[in-house]
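Final report, closing paragraph on structural work. Over the funding period we assembled a curated collection of sequence-structure pairs, and we close with a single example.
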Amino acid sequence: MSKKDQKLKILVGLSGGVDSAVVAYLLKKEGHQVAAVFMKNFSSRDNVNKECPWKKDQAEAQKVADFLDINLETWDFEEQYRETVVKYLFDTYKKGLTPNPDILCNSEIKFKLFLCKALLAGYDKIATGHYAQIKEDKDGYHLLQGLDDNKDQTYFLAGLNQEQLAHSLFPIGKIKKPEVRQIAKKAGLPNAERKDSQGICFVGKVKLKDFLQQQIPAKTGNIIDINGKIIGQHEGVVYYTIGQRKGIDIGGGPALYVISKKLDTNELIVGPKESIELYTKKIKVTDWHWLAKEHEFPIKAHGKIRYRQEDQALEVNKLDNGLYEATFKEKQFASAAGQTLAIYLKDELIASAIIID
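Its predicted structure, as stored:
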């Protein structure tokens, strides 16, 4: 029997959204033994997020499970989520950096805790509604971009390793989003029309500043333009990220963007989008992570420094002391320390690293 025809015992991460619902539907249609888990990772016990209660998502997931006649369990990872993802979020922002909690959420919660528990329970694989693809060959497992360029989510999977890829499935990675919606409607899935989720992984739609203020108190300081003139006040430099426009409440004149954050003086430096300080061709990174086999340096490839950015031509060189330098063909807007640089060869995500400069 070929691997394609092999029937597996698969545990689907059912979020209540249409993507994971279609994943469960397709896998069951293929004849696999399918069950599902709703992951409870954040309960808003701090009363910050009023718009995305987990119980509503759980109820939607249950409707899908009932419709498909599959078993659904709720697994509670809230404490682990707070100890890893939430702690990382606060710690990184306190340092004036810009973290990406979704990447850590995937590598430490969905594809570590959830995956390990699923394997211990006797499942062969886990499956999620990510728009990505996995290819296996003699060199191992390769993470490829999803067919839908507009929805590709490989960037958020940049922290995965070979063991995690080996036991994961992304059934909708070869399908475009409109077709996923059509499959859901044609199958009669109860959440076929449900809107996609927004916001921080498992936390939902909540203003970042409101979330951060739970542990990082407001600290008023000056907003200064590129000529050194004080033009306004902010509530705390750590609430902002490089290149941010929204939240700079300065009336009149052109739109202003965050150019730099001075933690020692609590000053926010802003300027127009064309400010040269907002653009760079070279960035330094650390914490290099290979997803599959290692490649020799220098690496000529493509990369991106944020989700939904078009792939950018670059060359990466290895420096001393665990540092690497990426040189882009074109200048990049608003490279923020703390964010992730994802490296691609054609459509394969081969490595990732954390931006430090």
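The domain at 277-355 is CATH 2.40.30.10 (Elongation Factor Tu (Ef-tu); domain 3). The mean pLDDT is 93. We thank the funder for supporting this effort.
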